[in-house]
Automatic annotation (TrEMBL):
It holds the Pfam family Acyl-CoA_dh_N. InterPro entries: Acyl-CoA_Oxase/DH_mid-dom (IPR006091), Acyl-CoA_Oxase/DH_mid-dom_sf (IPR046373), AcylCo_DH-like_C (IPR036250), AcylCo_DH/oxidase_C (IPR009075), AcylCoA_DH/ox_N (IPR013786), AcylCoA_DH/ox_N_sf (IPR037069), AcylCoA_DH/oxidase_NM_dom_sf (IPR009100), Mycobact_Acyl-CoA_DH (IPR052161). Keywords: FAD, Flavoprotein, Oxidoreductase. Its cofactor is FAD. Belongs to the acyl-CoA dehydrogenase family. It comes from Phytohabitans maris. This is Acyl-CoA dehydrogenase family protein. It comes from the Bacteria. Residues 248-374 form the Acyl-CoA dehydrogenase/oxidase C-terminal domain. Residues 10-112 form the Acyl-CoA dehydrogenase/oxidase N-terminal domain. The keyword Repressor does not apply.
Length: 394
């Protein structure tokens, strides 16, 4: 039985061939090696080539879009900065003043202007609305002071989608204003953070940064509504269920697990044990490999926030199990002597840990599932007013 969502007719086949040619030309071994080395999530030549094709924000039908997405992902194209740019663009299109929109849109589509997400702060973390970075009005400008962490891709971008506190005297969600702050402005300082997962992200300091009011997105103190669109998209994805889109935002992580699993199956078929048998001859090895294969497919088939949690947990548990099966050489990083299958399991195992954190931790996603999917009340956490009011806090 054919479970394909669409039959590839001649035109779609021709498009797939065009995409394959593009990927072969622009997502080369050198591009992949550079990404493994830097963890930057970006390659300028690739990004510009995407712009030349009209693929920064592709106006393609859903089948073509899926062909493009899957080909880029299968080739391991470094596209984190592309994805943050796309997320922010929707807010720019909706909330930026007409002249700013007209100035930026063609540059974004050509690949010359890129956006990163300036939400997380050292003290606030998951609680984005607790942002302390201050913006104070001074005539036609705003003066910004504060610090953000984990501003991924800031070194590749021209603007950050920055959440600031403009009124500390009102409830936290009501005193926030969003800016598209030009990162070249004096007073902006970007420093690298290298994660255990191999990603490069950043700490960004804002010291008396003067930003013209034209870079404000949406109303003063109305920033939470501006942020919600990109944030919801990051949490829930586009929500398509027609078989032509990922069901959850972690699906690409699950496909990384598939690659690690395929390498482990090759190992199980070819390695020799002292008695001459292959690991695959051992039923416990087959069961362990089979369980990981089932977990990956179940995670890919789980929608929305549940899928995001499931993928992350599958990757963390499964990559550890694969390392345990293959042995210590699976932990040798790419490029080291004796490294196994190009370091795929070392990479997957380290990368897995961050998937439980960025874009919202799995605990925060569990809260989202409880409240927004199951309709349960807001959780009452230690220190919250409800708990203190009930006299149960110590
Ligand atoms: C590689 C990487 C890239 C990132 N990229 C970006 C980016 O581009 N832009 C950006 O703004 N941020 C980015 N982040 C930040 C990321 O979104 C935050 O790290 C994440 O939201 C968690 O915040 P925190 O690290 O401060 O942890 P905290 O919020 O301090 O959480 C600490 C612990 O408490 C738990 N916790 C917190 N609140 C709750 C709650 N309400 N209920 C239950 N448990 C809770 C958490 O699950 C966690 O275990 C990135 C992070 C990483 C690691």
């Amino acid at each position: 039985m054919d479970f394909s969502a669409v039959v590839l007719d001649d035109e779609l086949e021709a498009f797939a061939a065009e995409v394959r040619e593009f990927v072969a030309a622009h997502v080369t071994d050198e591009v992949r090696a550079e990404e493994r080395r830097t963890g930057s999530g970006f390659n300028l030549a690739l990004h510009k080539a995407m712009g030349a094709k009209g693929w920064i924000v592709p106006r393609l039908d859903r089948a073509r879009l899926r062909i493009l997405e899957l080909a880029l992902e299968a080739a391991d194209a470094p596209l984190i900065t592309l994805s943050t740019t796309r997320l922010v663009l929707s807010a720019v299109e909706r909330y930026a003043a007409a002249d700013l929109r007209a100035e930026l849109l063609p540059k974004v589509l050509a690949g010359d202007v890129r956006f990163c997400l300036g939400y997380t702060e050292p003290d606030g973390g998951s609680d984005i609305a607790a942002a302390k970075t201050r913006a104070v009005r001074d005539g036609d400008e705003w003066v910004v002071n504060g610090q953000k962490v984990f501003t991924t891709g800031a070194q590749n971008c021209q603007y950050t989608f920055l959440i600031t506190r403009t009124d500390p005297s009102v409830p936290k969600h009501k005193g926030l204003t969003m800016f598209l702050l030009p990162l070249e402005t004096p007073g902006v300082e970007i420093g690298p953070i290298h994660t255990v997962g191999g990603e490069r992200t950043n700490v960004v300091y804002y010291g008396d940064v003067r930003v013209p009011d034209r870079y404000r997105l949406g109303p003063v103190n109305g920033g939470w509504a501006v942020l919600r669109g990109p944030l919801d998209e990051e949490h829930f994805g586009a929500g398509h269920t027609d078989g032509l889109a990922d069901l959850n935002i972690g699906s690409s992580w699950a496909r990384l697990q598939r690659r690690g699993l395929a390498a482990a199956v090759r190992w199980a078929r070819t390695a020799r044990r002292p008695d001459g048998s292959h690991p695959i001859d051992d039923p416990t090895v087959r069961v362990r490999l089979g369980r990981i294969a089932l977990d990956v497919e179940a995670a890919l088939g789980t929608p929305g926030p549940m899928g995001r949690v499931r993928v992350s947990e599958t990757l963390i548990r499964g990559s550890a199990d694969l390392v345990d099966l293959v042995g210590p050489e699976a932990l040798l990083p790419q490029g080291t002597e004796g490294c196994w299958e190009d370091g795929i399991l070392d990479y997957a195992h380290r990368f897995a840990q961050g998937t439980a954190i960025y874009g919202g931790t799995t605990e925060v996603f569990r809260n989202i599932i409880a409240q927004h999917v199951l309709g349960l009340p807001r959780p009452v956490l230690p220190g919250s007013k409800a708990l203190v009011g009930a006299g149960t806090a110590r």
